[in-house]
Write a structure and sequence with these properties.
Blueprint (H helix, E strand, L loop, with lengths): L1 H29 L29 H5 L14 H19 L4 H24 L4 H20 L18 H27 L6 H14 L3 H22 L11 H25 L4
Helix pairs in contact: 1-3, 1-4, 3-4, 4-5, 4-9, 5-6, 5-7, 6-7, 7-8, 7-9, 8-9
């Protein structure tokens, strides 16, 4: 019976993820253009025809239509079903991490959804919009408060099992301060030495918001994201003609590192500290 319920929960999580992936596409497209994310209904950007409800089923409709608009046959970007499918997998990941803790599974799914949205907005616009980062931070902070004074532990999603930072509010506050503070210091130092911005304030705010969900393990996201971003910059300069003064969207690397910190943060930190002889 338990295995059947687990399977049903996984299917429901994946299906909800597909639907939220469709909504993520709406937010990624409309928010940077200052358009409502609620109305009007979705329409073809080429001909303006409204998308019928049966043509708006995540992934399946795109496949059934051959990746083209039903009315004008204009191509529909592959990114739409990709985002939907990826969101489905992320929600399934959240469920698999916390199958016996539905509250934490929902919070983890929300965390991953925000990272997904911010990734694609940053790729498109080189910006991390304050409304999205602020909403993410608000949910993380509310979850920490509810965890501190309510019967169920929700946030941070990862954190110390003992000590003062094991308290939800302390762990979330420490994560926010560590995430925003460490990145802000690096940004200021880089700007002072190189006289150019190497770490945007949007990235600083994002790390602060991520800290509310990850607690002190946000440091893993910071360092891993910095490593991934630097490695990609070196590759781009050597193979793709990128110049040192060119800007690079850093949000996607922080988002990927945030998933890493969420899934394997504690064992990764223990491994590193053991390697360094600190434990």
């Amino acid at each position: 019976m338990a295995s059947a319920l687990d399977a049903l929960g996984a299917v429901a999580a994946g299906a909800l993820g597909l639907l939220m992936g469709s909504f993520a596409n709406v937010v990624v497209w409309r928010l940077p253009r200052r358009e409502s994310i609620v109305a009007p209904p979705s329409a073809c950007p080429a001909c303006g025809a409204r998308v019928r409800w049966h043509d708006n089923v995540p992934v399946l409709s795109w496949l059934a239509l051959g990746g083209r608009c039903r009315d004008c046959a204009s191509p529909i970007a592959w990114r739409y079903p990709f985002v939907e499918a990826l969101c489905g997998l992320l929600f399934l990941l959240a469920w698999e991490m916390y199958p016996a803790q539905p509250g934490r599974a929902v919070l983890a799914a929300a965390f991953l959804w925000f990272l997904l949205v911010l990734t694609f907005i940053d790729l498109d616009t080189m910006r991390l919009p304050n409304p999205v980062v602020g909403a993410m931070a608000g949910i993380g902070a509310a979850a920490a408060v509810a965890s501190q004074f309510g019967p169920v532990r929700l946030a941070p999603l990862v954190g110390p099992a003992a000590g003062p930072l094991a308290e939800p509010l302390a762990g979330a506050a420490a994560g926010a301060l560590i995430g925003a503070g460490s990145s802000l210091l690096i940004a200021l130092a880089y700007s002072a030495v190189r006289k150019v911005e190497g770490f945007g304030m949007g990235d600083v705010k994002l790390l602060g918001a991520m800290g509310l969900f990850l607690g002190p393990y946000v440091l893993i996201a910071f360092f891993a994201g910095s490593f991934l971003g630097s490695a990609w910059a070196v590759y781009s300069m050597s193979s793709r003609g990128m110049r040192a003064k060119d800007t690079l969207p850093f949000g996607p690397f922080l988002a990927g590192a945030g998933v890493l910190a969420l899934t394997v943060g504690p064992p990764l930190a223990d491994w590193y500290l053991g390697l360094a002889g600190a434990v």
